[in-house]
Amino acid sequence: MENKTVTSTYAAILVLTIIALSVIKYFNISYPISVSTSQVSRELSVVGEGKVEVIPDTAVVEVGVTVNNIDTARQTQNQLTQTNNQIISALTKIGVAKKDIKTTNISIYPNYSYDGAVSDIIGYNGNATLSVTVKNVSKASEVVDVATQNGANEVRGPNFTLNKPEKYREEARNKAIDNAKEQAEKLAKNLGIRLGKIVNIVESSPISSQDYYYPRAAAEGMGGGGPTYEPGSQTITSTVTLYFEKK
């Protein structure tokens, strides 16, 4: 009797299952199936940093000419051009190449006089700017002196920079990679694991920081009356992340 009851129960369950599957198939009912897996990380990532400190080898000086209340726009342009040419000629005589002198701005604009609602042009103002790249930073002071002696009445700089920064960025990057490898080997030893090959490398953008220069007054009796300029030093920093296989 008991066997018959069990058999009937199994039969009922089977029938209900078949009916349920048939309904799902007939009405195209979808049901979620999730499969979860867990995997221990097979990579070890290490961050390394490299720094290179260099002395800037290039100076950039901007020298400007400003004129005011010139009678006509043409006269304003002529005066700016004449003074600019005089500055350029003087700079080339002290060894600055023409290709390192660039005109970056020329502006001419009217000067107005206002009488109530009426405005009259009473003259013209103008300015011109030359950007001078000095390959020998020790000549930056001389460039400023010569430019002002030949008509420049505005000076910005010198700003010190590197002629070929890529060379030093690569050096900083190589130091960062070596630093990351060294740290990875120490870490692997402490963890009791073996390192495999490098599977990925990510570099952050190189950062450059510069110590500011200060004008230094030339000593009396040393043949110079103007200040000299100290380029200071520039630090290029590279940060890399290396990803190693773990064995």
From TrEMBL:
- Give the GO biological process terms: DNA damage response
The record's annotation in Pfam families points to: SIMPL (PF04402)
Gene3D superfamilies hit by this protein: Protein of unknown function (DUF541), domain 1 (3.30.110.170), Protein of unknown function (DUF541), domain 2 (3.30.70.2970)
What keyword terms does UniProt attach to this protein? Answer: Membrane, Transmembrane, Transmembrane helix
InterPro entries on file:
26kDa_periplasmic_antigen (IPR052022), SIMPL/DUF541 (IPR007497)
Residue spans crossing the bilayer: 7-27
Stored PANTHER family = PERIPLASMIC IMMUNOGENIC PROTEIN, SLR1258 PROTEIN
The protein here is known as: 26 kDa periplasmic immunogenic protein
